Structure formats: C-alpha cells, structure tokens
C-alpha cells in the first residue's frame, strides 16, 4: 500500500473560541477536522481540570486535521489568526496518509 506525505495539525483552544476557529477553517475550505473536548491538562499556569464544571465555557477543545503539505501553511495562518491573541496551542506533525485526495 502506498502512502503520501501530509501534515497533521492539532489546535487546542479555549472552548468559547471553538466556533470562531471552525468557522475560519470552513471559510478556508479545509476539507475536514475533528473536535474533541479536553478534559484536563497542565501548562504555564499549572494543572487544571473540567471536573466539576457545570458548562464547557471554561474548558478547552482540541481540533485535529490532516492536510496536504502544500496547504499546511495556509491552514496554519488561518488557525493562528484565531489562536494567537488567546490561550491556545498549535502543533504540526509530519504524517503519511493512504488516500491523499481526502485531505486536499
């Protein structure tokens, strides 16, 4: 089976900004992404957890997508424009995919 190079982009962002991020990705014609809740973590401010929170307003969300190597910079610029002034992390990993047309 042949594989093709791609980029996996993970964005962890404050939950209230999730809609703004997904709207920006949709507008940039990103063909797909996955959103997951972030339950707990630790960072510069120390450990935190969603445990006991009534709403997701104070929580974080993770958005993961795979794109072509050629489109990665455009997607990163789109994501960073939303994340930069807020709490959030953007990471990029080289990966390989089997059906590259799904990520174009």
UniProtKB/TrEMBL annotation:
A single BP term in Gene Ontology: regulation of nitrogen utilization
Recorded GO MF terms: enzyme regulator activity
InterPro entries (alphabetical): N-reg_PII (IPR002187), N-reg_PII-like_a/b (IPR011322), N-reg_PII/ATP_PRibTrfase_C (IPR015867)
UniProt-recorded name of the protein: Nitrogen regulatory protein P-II
């Amino acid at each position: 089976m042949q594989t093709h190079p791609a980029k996996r982009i993970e964005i962890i962002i404050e939950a209230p900004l999730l809609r703004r991020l997904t709207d920006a990705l949709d507008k940039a014609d990103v063909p797909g992404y996955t959103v997951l809740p972030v339950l707990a973590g630790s960072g510069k401010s120390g450990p935190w957890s969603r445990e006991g929170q009534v709403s997701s307003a104070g929580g974080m969300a993770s958005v993961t997508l795979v794109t072509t190597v050629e489109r990665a910079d455009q997607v990163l610029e789109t994501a960073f424009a939303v994340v930069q002034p807020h709490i959030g992390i953007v990471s990029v990993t080289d990966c390989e995919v089997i059906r590259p047309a799904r990520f174009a």
